[in-house]
Design brief:
The protein is α/β, with parallel strands linked by helices and 402 residues long. It folds into two domains: 3-114; 139-398, 3-Layer(aba) Sandwich (Rossmann fold). It contains 13 helices and 14 strands. Strand 5 (86-93) and strand 6 (96-102) form a beta hairpin. Helix 4 packs across helix 5 and helix 8 crosses helix 10. The longest helix is centred in the last third of the chain and has 22 residues, at 312-333. The radius of gyration is 26 Å and the shape is globular.
């Protein structure tokens, strides 16, 4: 059988399996195309707004991208991909697996393997997942309008519910890197309406069984009153919200400091407070990197990146990277192991950058402090000079600038 007939037969079986509702998924592998870091594509059938669609998951080395297509359009795209860029394609149905493979001498083979399965294909757009924060029996989720009185998540709150769980999952993995019993005092700087603060308290007390005190710091009086009322009704006795700014908050003992979306230098203030308190774990999701951008605009230094930074959107992105890069260096200067990573809590919500500092034990830094710190200060000064930055707020808070 010719290559073209094999391709046509694979497409025919794909189309038939979808129409008969016995289709599970298609897996495309052994990518030979030109798109950098693309590894695989997985396709499954979903129902979106009552319409059947094919959902494509593009699996890259460090991220996933999701795209949805109408059935006919998706089938045509699969046929194009298996004809050109992917050398192995497997069709999974309730009855069999169909494997299309490009072999040696540019010959295509097609083989089938019968399977026995009582499972039925699911059209759910979101994979079922065990969440760390379950919605049932949580008065605070009802009070925050995430769930109804029966514990069912409102449709318009699905993204927020997933985002809360994504944050808790990330914090959970970071907390596991600390010695057991470390987390005793937690402060959420700029806690807002308290979505994460309540969920973190719930997780620490009811999942990890820790007797930790959690404090939310928020300058809006009405939100502080609302959150304290919800905490009282939820019987979260070691959770309190206090009114005030991050800058003015009186530093006590802190093991875990969080600051999500604290605007511009408020993130620096939060990092400063965490380092002052010798916190074992500092987690910030910065936003609005205005201070460094203003310095870069004022400095107008000419360098190899001028062809990019002459455009406002690229200047903004560069300012974000420079700001968060220096934040990571300052954390390292004060003895923290740092992580900077992007996460997307859901396909429909914005991406976020997290800057994480984990306090390094003294024995891990012994013997390299002076030289290591001098090198960090040199890197900061070189970075400032390169981008025409006169001063940086966090550096100035510690008196590190020359």
């Amino acid at each position: 059988m010719s290559n073209q007939l094999h391709l046509q037969q694979f497409q025919a079986q794909l189309t038939e399996s979808i129409s008969l509702n016995i289709f599970f998924k298609v897996s495309l592998g052994n990518y030979q195309g030109n798109e950098k870091e693309l590894k695989n594509i997985y396709v499954r059938k979903v129902k979106i707004k009552r319409a059947d669609m094919l959902s494509f998951t593009y699996r890259y080395k460090t991220r996933d991208i999701f795209k949805n297509f109408q059935i006919s359009e998706g089938i045509a795209l699969i046929n194009h991909l298996v004809s050109n860029d992917f050398k192995i394609a497997t069709l999974f149905t309730t009855e069999k697996e169909v494997i299309l493979e490009h072999g040696k001498k540019q010959l295509i083979s097609l083989r089938e393997k019968l399977v026995t399965s009582n499972l039925k294909p699911s059209l759910s757009h979101d994979k079922e997942k065990k969440r760390l924060i379950q919605p049932a029996g949580k008065p605070y989720l009802e009070a925050l309008r995430i769930t109804d009185h029966e514990g069912k998540v409102f449709k318009n709150a699905q993204d927020k519910y997933r985002q809360i769980n994504q944050y808790i999952e990330i914090l959970s993995s970071l907390i596991k890197e600390l010695p057991v019993g470390t987390i005793k005092n937690v402060v959420d700087m700029g806690s807002g309406k308290g979505y994460l603060t309540f969920a973190l308290y719930d997780y620490l007390h009811h999942v990890l069984k820790l007797d930790a005190k959690v404090t939310g710091v928020e300058f809006r009086e009405d939100l502080v009153a609302l959150c304290n009322d919800i905490a009282h009704k939820s019987e979260f006795n070691k959770l309190e919200f206090v009114e005030g700014t991050i800058e003015a908050y009186n530093v006590n003992q802190i093991n875990l400091l969080i600051a999500l979306h604290a605007c511009d230098t408020a993130t620096d203030d939060a990092i400063y407070k965490g380092i002052q308190a010798n916190a074992e774990l500092i987690v910030v999701a910065p936003c609005c990197h205005k201070q460094i951008r203003r310095e870069m605009e004022k400095g107008k230094v000419k360098n190899e990146l001028n062809f990019l930074t002459k455009y406002g959107i690229f200047l903004e992105r560069q300012a974000e990277m420079v700001t968060d890069g220096i934040r990571a260096l300052v954390l390292e200067y004060f003895g923290y192991k740092t992580k900077v990573f992007e996460f997307i809590s859901d396909a429909h919500t914005p991406k976020n950058v997290l800057v994480v500092g984990i306090k390094v034990r003294d024995r891990e830094t012994k013997g390299k402090d002076a030289q290591y710190k001098a090198e960090i200060l040199r890197k900061i000064e070189e970075t400032k000079a390169y981008f025409g930055i006169g001063y940086y707020h966090l550096e100035r808070l510690f008196g590190l600038s020359s």
